[in-house]
Design goal:
Helices cover 52% and strands 11% of the residues. By secondary structure, the protein is an alpha/beta fold. The protein has one domain: NAD(P)-binding Rossmann-like Domain (Rossmann fold, 3-Layer(aba) Sandwich), CATH 3.40.50. Helix 3 packs parallel to helix 4 and helix 6 packs antiparallel against helix 7. The model is unreliable at 1-6 and 297-302 (pLDDT under 50).
């Protein structure tokens, strides 16, 4: 549990408390926006859909429309956000993203590309557009919402894992590149959080995976049914969006934020496995879990 305790940075405190948060329709983004607003931040949330933008407006925000897969939308949204703050911005929280599930053999080039457009290319495009503002100010905080699977790749989430591995690598590189500028690049690795993320991933899987043509078809059906029926509550494994928001607040407001924040026990466990357990053992554990799911699907089908 102490893996991240020494990973501290010394950064100048933000001065104007203005933050752009992507992906605020529900879950971590929406919760973080509300909590930071209560703490006196000027929060500019983003969303793709008009109904989500309207919902954010009704609770007192001036949201910005932004589709992370569309470079023109990212550019326009970035300009709109800076216009709201007279060209100043203290922080960026890159929360927008989605998870494409499915075995890699079942995913097309287009599916893999879209996963990276949203989770990686759009994230880095937006970040780079705001770097000049942060450099000119001499301070700024960039928080990327990553994942435990950005440290430990898991079967049937290979594309999503790859996108989060990329986010981790980009953040590690840019954090060093920004050394001495007053700008910090910080990663948050939540693990299992009670949001609509899993159900949204299941819906996308149902739309993109060819269930009848895949050797994994029955496994997918079982998993989709299970996720559709899930009604989870926060516990010692599954945490709430508020738990993630608390870490984001620390990353934005502390004079000595961590480079990485793990939230849940699985997130800490994934980091431990990646660092200290031999790869053959990890492969065996993950393969056993996958085989158990396959067996459960086959039994149910029979």
């Amino acid at each position: 549990m102490l893996l991240h305790s020494e990973c501290l940075m010394k950064l100048p405190l933000v001065q104007h408390k203005t933050v752009l948060i992507t992906g605020c329709s529900t879950g971590i983004g929406a919760t973080t926006a509300l909590i930071l607003k209560e703490r006196g931040w000027q929060v500019i949330p983003t969303a793709r859909k008009e109904e989500d933008l309207e919902s954010l407006t009704r609770v007192g925000f001036q949201p910005v429309k932004m589709d992370m897969a569309d470079p023109d939308s990212v550019a326009a949204g970035c300009k709109a956000a800076l216009d709201q703050t007279n060209g100043q911005l203290s922080a960026l929280v890159n929360n927008a993203g989605f998870g494409q599930s499915g075995a890699l053999e079942d995913l097309s080039r287009e599916h893999i590309r879209y996963q990276f457009e949203v989770n990686v290319f759009g994230l880095q495009d937006l970040t780079n557009r705001l770097i000049p503002t942060f450099r000119q100010q001499g301070y700024g905080r960039i928080v990327h919402i990553s994942s435990v699977v950005g440290r430990l790749s898991v079967p049937f989430l290979g594309t999503y894992s790859a996108s989060k591995f990329a986010v981790e690598a980009l953040a590690d590189a840019q954090r060093v590149e920004m050394h001495g500028s007053g700008v910090g690049v910080i990663l948050v690795e939540p693990g299992p959080i009670i949001t609509e993320f899993r159900r949204n991933a299941a819906r996308r899987a149902a739309e993109t995976l060819k269930l009848n043509d895949s050797p994994n078809g029955q496994l997918y059906r079982e998993e989709l049914d299970r996720r559709a029926a899930q009604q989870k509550s926060p516990n010692w494994i599954n945490k709430s969006p508020e738990d993630v928001a608390d870490k984001i607040v620390h990353a934005l407001e502390s004079p000595r934020p961590k480079r990485r924040y793990a939230i849940t026990i699985p997130a800490y466990a994934g980091e431990f496995l990646r660092r200290f357990v031999p790869v053959p053992i990890i492969d065996g554990l993950l393969a056993r879990k996958a085989n158990q799911k396959r067996a459960a699907g086959e039994t149910h089908c029979a």
